[in-house]
Amino acid sequence: MKLFTGLILCSLVLGVHSRWFSFLGEAYEGAKDMWRAYSDMREANFKNSDKYFHARGNYDAAQRGPGGAWAAKVIRETIPRVTDFFQHGDSGHGLEDSRADQAANEWGRSGKDPNHFRPAGLPDKY
């Protein structure tokens, strides 16, 4: 009986442990997807393309699984608020644009096609 109980306990611990590592792996890969979208946006330097890259980065990260979606949410909703505060203080400057970015982020994370935000003329490379 003790052996059986021990085996059940070990399998539960290993199962949870395995899911935790899977989540972390998804989060890591999702963060890389977000970085790739940011790098592409900087490289493209294309007018009115930021919403597309926001949606694409979130979409790619969310496709990794729950960990990727979590990483996308943390990256896109925490970092901009901190950087906006240091750039503009609490003046509300850029609030409308920030809300539009958040809408594009949610669009991508929800699995909708990021090409909805793709501006005409953006090179196919992106």
From TrEMBL:
Q: Where is the signal peptide?
A: 1-18
Residue ranges annotated as transmembrane are none
Q: Does the keyword Signal apply?
A: yes
Q: Which GO terms describe its biological process?
A: acute-phase response
Keyword Ligase attributed: no
Q: Which domain of life is it from?
A: Eukaryota
Segments of skewed composition (Basic and acidic residues): 90-100
GO annotation, cellular component aspect: high-density lipoprotein particle
Region Disordered: start and end of each range?
87-126
Q: Which UniProt keywords apply?
A: Acute phase, HDL, Signal
- Could you tell me which PROSITE patterns the record lists for this protein? SAA (PS00992)
What is the role of this chain?
Answer: Major acute phase reactant. Apolipoprotein of the HDL complex.
* Family to which this protein belongs: Belongs to the SAA family.
Give the protein name, as stated in the record: Serum amyloid A protein
| Species assigned in the record | Lipotes vexillifer (Yangtze river dolphin)
From the broadest rank down, the organism's phylogenetic lineage runs: Eukaryota, Metazoa, Chordata, Craniata, Vertebrata
